[in-house]
Design a protein that fits this description.
The chain is mostly helical and 254 residues long. The chain has nine helices and six strands, in the order H-H-E-E-H-H-H-H-H-H-H-E-E-E-E.
């Protein structure tokens, strides 16, 4: 037994729980034998014919066929025929809603809305009269729910806008809102030659606030050169003094 829904499915159920609505909608199911009278069912009786304890599978198939046929022919903007299809599909969709929300942590109201939208889109498709059935309707709604929930897993909330607003608020409180941002520093790291020959230097740009104090070492000409790296000790170490410029033989330059 699944927990009661408080979203769109619950609204549809409440609509058909009203006696004036349930008794006003009539579904006429043609007889399967010649000379027999068609069976006229209210909305409540139609639901019982599909899900009641004495439901006949063959008669249930005929009921679904007639319910879908009348829904496709209902062109009224506020007609209840398409809504009847949604209501009769709910017992076959509730279990999927529960599994989707439990496994993928999706919002129940969103999942139910996606299912209802899938049902309405199937009923509105141009070739619905020739291919649609109760099974295809249920399959479309279930597939839509799983896809929606799985796509939601790949979406990660970002607080970048909030951080920007906070940064501007802090800058305004310090009186530095109009101060130009510091430019990035271009860093070049010349790597020692390897056994296979020359190695290309590494070049990248960093922002000053991302560098800790003492990251740069002063070079002989007083300019700031490369950052000091703390790497694990290797068996073969370069004898170069940290911060010194690499000296290559002139004949080996590219």
């Amino acid at each position: 037994m699944y927990p009661p829904s408080s979203g769109l499915f619950a609204s549809v159920r409440r609509h058909f729980d009203e006696p004036r609505v349930g008794d006003a909608v009539l579904v006429t199911v043609p007889a399967d034998t010649e000379g027999a009278e068609p069976v006229r069912l209210t909305a409540t009786e139609t639901h019982d014919a599909l899900y009641g304890p004495g439901s006949d599978p063959q008669f249930a198939t005929a009921v679904w066929k007639e319910v879908i046929r009348t829904a496709l022919s209902d062109l009224a903007p506020h007609g209840t025929r398409k809504l009847l299809v949604i209501w009769l599909a709910l017992p076959r969709l509730t279990g999927t809603v529960h599994r989707v929300c439990t496994r993928l942590r999706a919002d129940r109201s969103d999942v139910e809305a996606e299912m209802v939208l899938a049902l309405l889109e199937e009923l509105a498709s141009p070739d619905a009269a020739s291919r649609i059935s109760s099974s295809s309707l249920i399959h479309a709604a279930r597939t839509r729910a799983w896809h929606f929930a799985r796509n939601g897993l790949r979406e990660y909330p970002s607080r970048q806008v909030e951080r920007i607003a906070q940064d501007h608020a802090l800058a305004a409180s310090d009186g530095k809102a109009d101060a130009p941002a510091e430019e990035g520093l271009d860093v070049r790291v010349d790597r020692p030659d390897g056994p296979d020959g020359l190695r290309a230097p590494l070049r990248f740009r960093v922002r000053p606030e991302h560098l800790r104090k003492g990251t740069f070492a002063d070079t002989d000409d007083g300019t700031r050169n490369r950052p000091t790296h703390h790497a694990p000790r290797r068996k073969r170490q370069s004898r170069r003094r940290a911060g010194a410029r690499p000296v290559r033989p002139a004949g080996r330059r590219a």
